[in-house]
Amino acid sequence: MKRLLALYLCLTAFQLSVAAADTRPNIVFVLVDDQRNTSLGCAGHPQIKTPAIDELARQGIRFENAFVQTPICMASRANLFTGLTTTTHGYHGNPGNPVSKADLQSSFPTLLRTAGYRTAFYGKQHVKWKKGVNGMKEMFDAHEVLHRNPYLKQMPDGSLRHVDEIIGDKSVAFVESQTKEAPFFLYMSFNISHAEDSDRRPGFHYQWPAEEDGLFEDVEPLRPNLDDPKYYAAAPEFLKHSLNRERFFWGYDTPEKYRVNLRAIYRMLAGMDRIVSRVNSALKEKGLNENTIVVYSADNGYYMGDRGFQGKWSHFDQSLHVPLVIYDPRMKSENRGRVIDDAVTSLDIPATILDLAGVPVPPKYQGVSLKPFIDGESPKNWRTDFYCEHHSGNAKLPRWFGVRDDRYTYANYYKDGVELLYDREVDPTEFVNVAGDPEYSDTLTRLREKALKYKQQYSRK
């Protein structure tokens, strides 16, 4: 009798655990390539059309001050997987140290999978793992790496299909295969809106899906906010000889080239938004939308001609500042549609996803869960600064580390022996470098020491 009672209690506990697991939310993470914070309709852009993301922001929350800590695709994506800074995990790209097995095992997709989530990834990957380690197989039940170069892929029938449309196809199929027996995590990693580096022809340099053909043809794209030549003239001399300047001539150096390429970027983002809408529709048709969280962000910002630059990589706001939208169908109505001004970083995303899934966040993670904001709370003692860095081995990409706080931007370009300091309270466009101004000597010393302290804190000995 005692044995039967014990068996009954075990079965009951198991059934309760399954029932609890059934209520855990599904999570879709949408990561866009090379998108700055202002390039969304909900962020106030008057020309770019992103109705699906705008609706997620209206029903969820949008973070006005979201930043990456390493503004380059490879390292930023490794930061997201591992929850660690580039200084800690070591993979800065070109070539960089591959991500270790230990950091792979504590990556947020691995932890979700271990906790019983069905995990899938489709799209751009761009992270190297330690030799003999297959990171994607460790993290995901299903995955397919889908890179651009070229954007248009030949299909079995001979037709061409945009690679991100294929990401949408795979994502929809994954959603359609799900049941309510276990939660799932879907990572949609877009190639949009990265330029096609190997094809610099206007209209091909930025390649949009066919369904967006003709969109924005009657729109005269807005000129960059920092279009005045004075901003290029004020840039550090080494940046004038970097890839930021070189690639400006790939896409923006004539009015017609700028016009054609900006319309192309608008079409790319419209296509991305439509593909996200396809997945949202699949969720609704499966009856999964009421229990599926959507997180939307980008791997880095992007110069769209500002300062006479293209690309990312450097310390200015256009390079670091990204969109971040989180939609949770369980949110209370009074918490929806809010815009959060607190500074958050990409390292907060993996911690947030784990927290929303009810999975413990590893102590080694260097970000903080944003769940309190989702719940309508105002966290006490929230960060007032964060560490940022770029260490790519590409000779045309200067290396730096620094700190951004609620007023100042500090960057140490250590290979060039140059320190930069901007007071955004009086100089929001980061035009005047005040590192040599005696009035700012104490601030320079304080932020220099803060950046070095962060660097030491995050370094592995």
Automatic annotation (TrEMBL):
GO molecular function: arylsulfatase activity
Keywords: Hydrolase, Signal
Enzyme class: hydrolase
InterPro entries in the cross-refs: Alkaline_phosphatase_core_sf, Sulfatase_N
Signal sequence segment: 1-20
Gene3D superfamilies: Alkaline Phosphatase, subunit A
One Pfam family from the record: Sulfatase
EC number(s) given by UniProt: 3.1.6.1
Domain Sulfatase N-terminal, chain residue ranges per copy: 25-359
Keyword Signal: yes
Organism domain of life: Bacteria
Positions of transmembrane segments: none
Name this protein carries in UniProt: Arylsulfatase
Organism of this sequence: Stieleria varia
